[in-house]
Amino acid sequence: MAGMRVQELGREFGLSSKDMLGRVREMGIPAKSHASVLTEDQVRQIREALEPVVKEVVENGEQKTVVVTEKEAEEQKRQAEEERARREAVEKERAAREAERARRAAPASAASAAGTADERAAAKTPPTPSSPFSGLEAQIADAAERARRKAEEDRARARAAAAAQAVAKKQAVEAALRERSGGKKSARPAAAERPAPVAAPAPTAGRAPAGGGNRFESLLSQIEAEKKRISEQGGASKPAGAGRRAASPAAASGKRRRGDQVVPELERGGEDDRYARMAVQVEELQRDKVLADARAAVAAANTHEGEGRRRKRKEKRQAQQRERLEAEAIQKGIDPSLLLDDSVVEVPQGATVQKFAELLAVGPNEVIKRLFMLGNVLTLTQSMNDELIELVADDMGRKVRVVSPEEEFTVVYHDSDDELKPRPPVVTVMGHVDHGKTSLLDAIRDTGVAAGEAGGITQHIGASVVTVGSRKITFIDTPGHEAFTAMRARGAQVTDIIVLVVAADDGVMPQTIEAINHARAANVPIVVAVNKIDKPGANADRVRQELTTYEVVPEEWGGANMFVEVSAKKRLHIDDLLETILLQADVLELRANPDALASGFVIEANLDKGRGPVATVLVQRGTLKPGDVLVAGTSYGRVRALIDPHGAHIDSAIPASPAEVLGLSSVPVAGDEFRVFEDERDARRLAEERALRERLTAQDAKTHTSLTDLFGRIEEGKIADLNLIVKADVQGSIEALRGAFEKMDQSEVRINIVHSAVGGITETDVTLAAASSAIIIGFNVRPMGKAKQQAEKEKVDIRLYRVIYEALEEINAARVGLLSPDIVEEDTGIAEVRDLFKVPKVGTIAGCYLVEGEMGRDDLVRVVRDGTVVFEGTLASMRRFKDDVKSVRAGYECGLGVNGFQDLKVGDTIEGYVKKEVERTE
Ligand SMILES: Nc1nc2c(ncn2[C@@H]2O[C@H](COP(=O)(O)OP(=O)(O)OP(=O)(O)O)[C@@H](O)[C@H]2O)c(=O)[nH]1
């Protein structure tokens, strides 16, 4: 049952809706009206409270449910009073009527003196009326009156008896409570004060019906006396022997002492104990209610407080976790929302199908099926690449985040101020070709050696350390921006200062500018070494002047760059340069924590025949020692030996120190980060996962950069360089293109011409393009041999142009994602010229063999000789034997004439093509 209305419950107890509502409210149960629905609990509570005080009484042969409370008892007394008054009035009236009847009957009795016994008997009962009808009426009225009176008397007696019993029981309750409440009170001679014993009213009541009219008087007076006595007694007993009277008898009689709850003898009392039970129950109810309220209040307070505390703690923990995740996400360069979203499942990079299924709690078959639908047939133990992981998850409506091993093992170093110790600067030398980078490094090393390392012969390990007084400077041996960029591309930020070498006789050159750009991109300060000042044409000021254009401004001119004029060849001012580098280092306040597990970058690595994989590492933090377990890229191992740039075995390498490391499992790559692990297993795991990832990346790399997706890739940050292989019919085109690129803004994407040459596009070009993810640009050249097929296979983008302008425009557009719709030249057929015929008035006709496809009469054609397009135009004629035809298919011979081109040669190819506009997909 869902609930019950107040009125329904009232009906159950024989109470009016109003009464029931009052009771419900008294119990502290909120109910607005009689129609309010009570919950099951509330109904149970009300029943428990009311049932003990509900008593079945029999009245006039009918069963009736009566609920009695103290108030009702008083009401009953009041009614008894009223009844007594009414009865007195009735008695009076009856007496008057009797007198009247006697007066009327007097003549009749004289006339029938000799009447029968029946008549006498009749005369005794109803008075004889004056007329036969009036007599009968009087008799009927009399009989009715008597019956009514009798019923009233019975009712009054019953009420009086009930009231008397109630009083007696109340008294018994009082006595019982007094007894239970302690010896002192029970010792009071209360009984002696009582005018009548407890049981007295009952026999009185029992006698009542036997008596006449006055027996009610007597009974009621007894009740009254009893009431008064109880009132007085109750009031007197209250102060517990103090002798004080209660303020009012009603108050005294209506209250109970605390602490007296259960009166077992009364509990057993049956119907007669109604009053007592009621009193006890009311008290119990009140006490229980108060206690329950109190308990509930305490519990609520505790719960709220506890809940509050718990909630606060939970909230704090969650906030901390959120902050930590956010910080981590920012550190790792990922979207924090992915880390914070609980529904995102983290899948390690290169996870197998089985692992993926496990992580997503789905059946492996389901994954395999979806992979199959996506065109990838993978088995349980095969790895999924990032894209597949995301695709399949997306397909399943799940959110995943591919976690790279790097990310998994990413550590955030926090060194306190006192742990940081000054460290030497790490310097890279950059500059234009032949401006003297190598010479300068040699000069510096010589100077350094001369200054500190007696007899030391610097061996090439990728970096060298020079000593200047008590200080050291570490130089990265590989000069030029290629190595610097390659390192940077791998995330290696090893250089603190760049020494920009500018030949004083040559001035600022393209690679000088590139070097400036790289330095700026890496946010590394530049110290300018104006070299070759020994040369006759040297003009250091011109160099200064030119560099200002690129915001490299000498300090003496108010700029931020220190300039030193040197001669690497003559070893002039090398000391000054070193001092200046140290000054710049001072400005940078370079510091590192040497007391930690070592980490840094690989500067160089190679496979030594005798020593196995050898890596030169630059320690950036901590101290590297032999025996350390390190991971460098996909390589890991225990450091078997540490060798310094002088070839000496050392037992530690501190921050900014280069050292050769022996003992690695494989050869790492320059720019790889290295890290010492406490646990060799972790090291192996990270290395293995990285190796796996590399293999997957290699698979992915099949799609090389193309102009179409160039912008997308730049946007995604996947590429920062656009590598080009330029093939042209003449050298001039290449030079013109190179010049044009140099003028282009290369701040977003740097354009590198990886390779350039005159001639058709060869398979070697395609291989090189695939290796360097380059785009092949051809000016008036065509792919030769199998180059085209290979390019298709390797997904190398080949772009063919006729003029430089077209190429520049398209590259520029591609960089900003504004490539116009692609006009694709779709090859139709290729014909080989095998013979030549001179036809009068028509010109040269080429006897051809269709080697590929199907060429149409209206196709555009180009004449290609040694991979170079020698002519482009349309066909003048297409014939098979003597007939003009619309098309010729592969395997057939035909005669082709080219409009406006007579210079056809045997060995040329005539390529047919059509132009088609293709919607861009990006
Ligand atoms: N007169 C003079 N010649 C110098 C000086 N420094 C270098 N050279 C010469 O310039 C030429 C190029 O020097 P390198 O040190 O090889 O220049 P680089 O920048 O390393 O050249 P790449 O490695 O090709 O980029 C050599 O012939 C040097 O001898 C100098 O201070 N004075």
TrEMBL record:
Region (Disordered): 66-270, 297-328
CC annotations in GO: cytosol
Origin: domain of life: Bacteria
Keywords: Cytoplasm, GTP-binding, Initiation factor, Nucleotide-binding, Protein biosynthesis
Keyword Transcription regulation: no
InterPro entries, A to Z: EF-G-like_DII (IPR053905), IF2_II (IPR044145), IF2_N (IPR006847), P-loop_NTPase (IPR027417), Small_GTP-bd (IPR005225), T_Tr_GTP-bd_dom (IPR000795), TF_IF2_bacterial-like (IPR000178), TIF_IF2 (IPR015760)
Record field: compositional bias (Low complexity): 105-116, 159-175, 188-208, 234-253
Regions of compositional bias (Basic and acidic residues) in chain numbering: 69-103, 143-157, 317-328
Chief place of localization: cytoplasm
A GO molecular-function descriptor: GTP binding
Ranges where the Tr-type G domain occurs: 422-589
Residues binding GTP, per UniProt: 431-438, 477-481, 531-534
Keyword Transmembrane helix annotated: no
Pfam families assigned: EF-G_D2, GTP_EFTU, IF-2, IF2_N
PROSITE patterns: G_TR_2
Localization terms from the record: Cytoplasm
Function summary: One of the essential components for the initiation of protein synthesis. Protects formylmethionyl-tRNA from spontaneous hydrolysis and promotes its binding to the 30S ribosomal subunits. Also involved in the hydrolysis of GTP during the formation of the 70S ribosomal complex.
Family: Belongs to the TRAFAC class translation factor GTPase superfamily. Classic translation factor GTPase family. IF-2 subfamily.
Stated name of the protein: Translation initiation factor IF-2
Organism field: Berryella wangjianweii
Gene that this sequence comes from: infB
